[in-house]
Amino acid sequence: MTFDGTFDDKGLSRRALLRGGAALAGGAAFTGLTGAPAMAADAAKPDRLTMLYATSEADSDAIKAALPAFKQAFGFDIALDTMPYNALQQKAFAELASESPYYDIMIVDTPWMPALTNKILPITDMILDPRANEGLDITDFIPKVFYDTAVYRRDNSALHFKDDAAIDPAKIKAEGFDIYGLPVQSNVLTMAYRKDLFEDAALKAAYRTKFGSDLAPPATWDEFAQVAEFMTDSAKRRWGTTLMAGTGDWATDDFKTLLAGFGGDGHLVSDTFEPVFDSPEGVKALTYYAKLIAKKVVPPGTTSASWDTAATSFGSGLTAMSMNYHSETLNPTVKGEIAYAMVPKGVARGPHFGTWMLSVNSYSKNKDWAFRAIKWFTSRETQTKALASQLHPTRLSVYAAAAADPGIVAKFGNFYDVLGQSLQVGVGRPRLTNYADIDRTVWVAVNDAARGAATPEAALKGAAAEVATLLQQAGYKRS
Amino acid sequence: MRRFLADTLFRLLLWGAAIIALFPVIWVVLTSIKPPELSQALPPVWDFAPTLQSYRDVLGGNTYTSQAFGTLLMHSLIVTVASTLLGLALGVPAAYALARFRFRGKRGTANWILSTIMFPPAVSVVPVFIFASKLGLTDTFPVLVVPYAAFNLPMVIWMLRSFIKQIPHEIEEAAMVDGASQGAVLRYIVLPLLMPGIVAASLLSAMLAWNEFLFALTLTRSAAKTAPVGISEFTNMYGTQWGSLTAAATVTVAPILLATLVLRRRLVEGLTFGAVK
Amino acid sequence: MTVVRTGLRARPAAARTRSTPSRRALKAWGFMLPAGALLLAMTVVPTLYLAYCAFRHEDLLGPNSRWVGLENFRHVLGDPNIWADALTTLQFVALAVAVEMALGLGLALMLSRKLAETDLLTALFILPLGVTPVVSALVFRVLLDPAYGWVDYYLQSWGLIDQPIDWFGEPFYAWTAVIGLDVWQWTPFVALILLAGLQGVPSEPKEAARLDGANALQLFWHIILPFMAPFLAIALVFRAIEAFKTFGSVFVLTGGGPGTSTSLINLDLYRIALQNFDIGAAAALGICFLVVLSLIMGRLLAVLNRNTDILED
């Protein structure tokens, strides 16, 4: 089956919609008789759909650029409101708490979802309905991303759907889970490095002399430390790497990436609600992290750095490497070239990841059309077009398309290639309604250890005890 | 001569202090006219070809945010002016009553008025949102005007009350003996004498309303979205769009500077009690 | 001076009343009513709703709302982090407000002296108050960044420091930055109130005192300060209340760090109320905050009342 063919013949083309519109009255009656859920073609076509979206964390540029094509395909507009990250969560929660039907489509970030399973519309039945799912091609989504982002149990939102196999909505439903949206933007920790420095003849020679091996982007955490130290030359205002050890979500995410890499459970909290990050692996990971900072292979200010300052540091040419959640750009004043690699490996590899999904507000008055719209926005065709404006695809086929497109390769180098590979091995967050508390406890511990205010052991032990209390208070009982 | 010397020294001191205090603002204005790629350069670049591109982008809506900034400024202006006027209209009579009348429960009332602003806004915004939403008021101007007036009311009342108490009561009495009503006294005698207080109170109210963030964020979507919410869109996990952000900040702070300049004379000249006594 | 004060204050009740006390009281309440109604609707009603929520697990996003008695209070008051952050908040308010009052008074006095350009200077000095707080916090953060900020760069190039200062990585410097930002932004608030208050100082006693040979300090202490007292009190009270509610600037500037060293109680409130959306626990903490703040402010007002007529009838 060619996706494009399906799309044109039976999917969301204008012709099909017109036909659907013509069949409206009869279709509605039919639905009523059979008791099947109301399907897109049957519901009255709205004047417009409203969408709440993230200003830049999920690349609103790409969505904005797709709006004319949407209008052409559907015959009506999307009214798009964007909000910056912190504001967005407040906005989304407040809208849902007041049962407002205003936004038909909402973008949802993974840490919010455990609280929202009663407010976001499960779309499992629509996905299973052959008349609604035309052109959806659900098995094209990256399975790991899909399960981590969109699959929840309504009666117990803390559970992960444990499966790595191809996506099977029927199986998801049979196991009591539901699908709550379609992944639209995948963020995962990747490593950017200055290709020009790694290929610099003098540096290569010096590295060879010093270590007896070739200078190359580090593949293991040991190499990473070694290369970072080698690249550091503070007199030239050049450091090995950025790290994001400031107080904020970013520090927790840095740590959980290392935790998974050193063989621990990158989810931080087990499915039986035990904090698992103060394990020997956790201590090793945090000790490694603190040591990098103590050795000053990172630019000054790393213990207060966040993802935006890390991007600025790398972009201003201050570091040879940087780990972040998006492609990087160098300031025009910095002459250099960027390439990407997966974050290094320890005994395992588990870069932190989190994906945004487009979901349907369960109070929307246009649920069927909203479903059609999110299907369109996450389709292979839309995602492929959005590559140029840095939407991080959620479909396997789009990564293949990115690799085959010389324009994209010229613009982003091997970024999409690395992104796609990293997503396959990413590790998400625990699913907790009070994750903000857990997150804060962990980042305080990471920050304390990073600036030497506490030993890694003590910091993690204290944090684990605190997390245990927090989990208990939130009603999560150890089983 | 000594006087001149003292004045010059005083002047130097004042201007020196002003430049230090204004440095962040100067940086903002400077960055807004810098080519964006130079905004983070170190050593700082002072010698550059100024450009108004950021202003054109921001005001024309050529940024990645969903609305042109000019629209948001207009929303801010409407909300600020309306809430300030509402605050004054309600605050002046209340302040007059608290300053000039004796009645049971007066002190308690004054304290209660003060206590209404003590609840942390991060918490109180949730019920306000839910009520507003149930009333269908989300994303309208009144949903900001009314809370802003309420936030500023205690300050307006307490400040004006102290001003009224400093106005010699004999003036009002004379008018009342002449047969003027309480309302007329308030309107024609007290109000003009109160000008410096009113100017100060409205400047403060207006600035707080102009820059309020949390309620504006939670209670609006796009039809009443205000400038501070729009500005915050220029910073995100990828970094900060310094050109857009500083241009937006400059056009947001300019009206405040203008208003203060215009009102400064009234703030200080208004009245001298020596003259009326 | 005594004469003037008497002139301002001595108001024989008989001379000023045309109507009976009860009718006057009625009129007073009439003047108060519109303001009172707005405050009642906008602040008291939500507070009552939150007081109700404080005893419930209020699940705004699901079906699990129920009465929980004092559990929310036990939960927030049993958390040592909350107590630590409450203490941090107190320190922050005391420090920031003290500095702002001192600088604000100085600024108001300087600006009350007439120069040709005083109007312009007033507008310029008040400007920081007009800068959107999110912007000021972001600007402070970028100026103080140890890797690419201007402050460390110039301090180094002028030879004042050897190593860049890690402003947000060490508690002492982080505090300096947080207090510095608050002082920068809010000193004009104090100055503006005091500047307006200065207009109420009558000129006659000033001149009389000058003729008696009083120097500037004596003039300030014996004439200006007593007249300014109510305005100092108002600036202090309102600034303190607002300082207790500080959130956005610290959230952007330090995020509570390093560690938890600048973690104000409002960061916890924000997390509980708007990220966890646990409105029950947030309301419980909010009510504790309200009670403590009212006690502090009540005490402060009582002290102020001894020295000013801020509450006097």
TrEMBL record, chain A:
Cited SUPFAM superfamilies? Periplasmic binding protein-like II
Q: Does the keyword Transcription apply?
A: no
Q: Name one Pfam family in it.
A: SBP_bac_1
Tell me which GO cellular component terms the UniProt record holds: periplasmic space
| Alphabetized UniProt keyword annotations | Periplasm
**InterPro entries cross-referenced by the UniProt entry:** Bact_solute-bd_prot1 (IPR050490), SBP (IPR006059), TAT_signal (IPR006311)
Per UniProt, subcellular location reads as:
Periplasm
Does Zinc count among this protein's keywords?
Answer: no
Q: Which family does it belong to?
A: Belongs to the bacterial solute-binding protein 1 family.
Protein name, entry field: Sugar ABC transporter substrate-binding protein
> What species does this protein belong to?
Lichenibacterium minor
Automatic annotation (TrEMBL), chain B:
Q: Does the keyword Membrane apply?
A: yes
Q: Where in the cell is it found?
A: Cell membrane
Which keywords accompany this UniProt record?
Cell membrane, Membrane, Transmembrane, Transmembrane helix, Transport
Gene3D superfamilies from the UniProt entry:
MetI-like
TM annotation in the entry? 12-33, 72-98, 110-132, 144-164, 185-210, 242-263
**Entry GO CC:** plasma membrane
* Residue ranges of domain ABC transmembrane type-1 in the record: 73-263
The record's section on CDD domains has: TM_PBP2 (cd06261)
Q: How does it sit in the membrane?
A: Multi-pass membrane protein
Q: Name one GO biological process term.
A: transmembrane transport
Q: Which PANTHER family match?
A: INNER MEMBRANE ABC TRANSPORTER PERMEASE PROTEIN YCJP, MALTOSE TRANSPORT SYSTEM PERMEASE-RELATED
Entry's family note: Belongs to the binding-protein-dependent transport system permease family.
- Protein name as it appears in the record: Carbohydrate ABC transporter permease
Species this chain originates from: Lichenibacterium minor
Automatic annotation (TrEMBL), chain C:
Spans traversing the lipid bilayer: 28-52, 90-111, 123-144, 172-198, 219-241, 279-302
Domain ABC transmembrane type-1, by residue range, is 86-298
The record ties this protein, via Gene3D superfamilies, to: MetI-like (1.10.3720.10)
Write down a Pfam family by its short name.
BPD_transp_1
Q: Which UniProt keywords apply?
A: Cell membrane, Membrane, Transmembrane, Transmembrane helix, Transport
Q: What is its main location?
A: membrane
Top-level division of the source organism's lineage: Bacteria
Q: How does the record classify its membrane topology?
A: Multi-pass membrane protein
Cellular component GO terms, alphabetically? plasma membrane
The UniProt entry, under CDD domains, shows: TM_PBP2
Keyword check for Transferase: no
Location in or out of the cell: Cell membrane
- One GO-annotated biological process of the protein: transmembrane transport
Entry annotated with the keyword Protein biosynthesis: no
Q: Which family does it belong to?
A: Belongs to the binding-protein-dependent transport system permease family.
What protein name applies here?
Answer: Sugar ABC transporter permease
Q: Which organism is it from?
A: Lichenibacterium minor
